[in-house]
From TrEMBL:
Keywords: Membrane, Transmembrane, Transmembrane helix
Domain of life: Bacteria
Transmembrane segment boundaries: 36-52, 59-77, 97-117
Protein name: Uncharacterized protein
Length: 126
């Protein structure tokens, strides 16, 4: 869920924001339609499940990178999208930051999923 949510942001939401960087376009943190209701249960649950099921260390490292980046993006970049007083240029600049940071998150979470699947499959025959 976390992977596909971030992929959706990367492929749909962020390009729209880059094309039309409207200040105040992101709804409030706890408002109806806020992405927090989608992410809050799945991000932490995925990390906890990876630890509990003893995912390989490289997969846990990928998840740690993705969590750290998401915390930075959510706390430092998201508030700019909610602020109706900032300029379109500032919103666009932060959308570029979001695109790069979220791109790394998508890659890190995808790598973690692949590493866990590979570990669960076991050694290849022959």
């Amino acid at each position: 869920m976390w992977f596909f949510g971030n992929l959706y942001e990367q492929v749909v939401w962020n390009p729209q924001l880059l094309a039309d960087p409207r200040p105040g376009s992101l709804v409030g943190v706890f408002a109806a339609g806020s992405p927090i209701y989608y992410y809050l249960p799945w991000g932490p649950l995925g990390v906890v499940l990876a630890v509990v099921t003893r995912a390989p260390r490289p997969a846990l490292g990928c998840l740690a990178v993705s969590v750290a980046l998401k915390v930075l993006l959510i706390t430092q970049v998201n508030p700019v999208f909610r602020d109706p007083a900032v300029s379109r240029e500032v919103v666009h600049g932060h959308a570029v930051l979001w695109a790069f940071g979220n791109g790394v998150v998508v890659i890190a979470v995808g790598a973690a999923i692949l590493l866990v699947l590979r570990a669960r499959r076991g050694p290849s025959p022959g």
